[in-house]
Amino acid sequence: MNRRDLLLGALAAIPVRALTQSARPMLTRPIPSTGEPLAVVGLGTWQTFDVGSDRAARTECAATLQAFLAGGGRVIDSSPMYGTSEQVVGDLLTARGGSPRPWLATKVWTTGERAGIDQMNTSLRRLQVDTIDLMQIHNLVDWRTHLRTLRAWKSEGRVRYLGLTHYQAGAHDDLARAIQSESVDLVQVNLSLDEPQAATSLLAACAQRKVGVIVNRPFGGGASFARVRARPLPSWSTELGISSWAQYMLAWILSFPEVTCVIPGTRRAVHVLDNLGAGRLPPFGVDVRERMAVEWRRLSS
Ligand SMILES: NC(=O)c1ccc[n+]([C@@H]2O[C@H](COP(=O)([O-])OP(=O)(O)OC[C@H]3O[C@@H](n4cnc5c(N)ncnc54)[C@H](OP(=O)(O)O)[C@@H]3O)[C@@H](O)[C@H]2O)c1
Predict the structure, then answer these.
(1) Does ligand 1 lie within 6 Å of residue 219's CB atom?
(2) Residue 218 beta carbon below 6 angstroms from any ligand 1 atom
(3) I want to staple 288 with a disulfide (CB 3.0 to 4.6 A). Which of 104, 163, 186, 284 is the partner?
(4) Are residues 261 and 42 in contact, defined by beta-carbon separation less than 8 angstroms?
(5) What is the pTM of this model?
(6) Tens digit of pLDDT for each residue in 155-184?
């Protein structure tokens, strides 16, 4: 089978339901520091895009990127920690060319000023861009050092936004302290029905400092699906337009107005379209959010 056949095969597997949902517009939310609108559902690349030179897997990634960008997605998140993901994303976007242009985020994850500069230069080269939309300091590693470099890069136009990331609730207090003492544009943090701790105080701290929030691990790394596998969605949630457990979990996250964007990781085009569908639902209020959480605990206990 040639590359074109593989690509067409991957796209043909997308169900009609996912395609009809795409008729509704993707919601956007503003980055607090500038007002620039971001599509609320993005794409994570940890593991899923770390495929090296595997031809079939790269073709699957190309179909996923195509579905993502054509479906209204913009934010793509990577990291030098994710093996070959930056290179794969860069190669596929270059091969694809044209518009719509994605909004690229990556990270710096090392110690020391020189090592940080070298790593960020390598990331830009792998992603095949001169300017990166968002550079985030991964897991807060040596964050004060890298923030100094990144402020200089921002003034030179090499990076548009600065961010800090973590993926564990135990680091939320450190993140909150960091944004109190330094000004950054965005924080990337874990938040999900199974890992809800960020909702207790970190989201409020971000809102108070006008810091946007990108949510990682929205499905607990995928483990959350095991809790509801084979269970039907509650009928009240399907009446709200939710058509999968992935959308249920993403809609709960997007019910927090402090959240700017959520970045589920997947290599499957069909899952990308499912996830983008959550960005076309109306934003739900506190009442629906609480009902979702109560139901989640009941169903998954
Ligand atoms: N800064 C940090 O410290 C940090 C840490 C972790 C992650 N992240 C970022 O956040 C992103 C998301 O986190 P994550 O990838 O760890 O976990 P996740 O998004 O919570 O879960 C990913 C898993 O969910 C599955 N999945 C995705 N969409 C699905 C759907 N619609 N239906 C069924 N299964 C679905 C994927 O499998 P398939 O491939 O089969 O769809 C994959 O196994 C990462 O990719 C990365 O960019 C950052």
Answers:
(1) yes
(2) yes
(3) 284
(4) yes
(5) 0.94
(6) 999 999 999 999 999 999 999 999 999 999
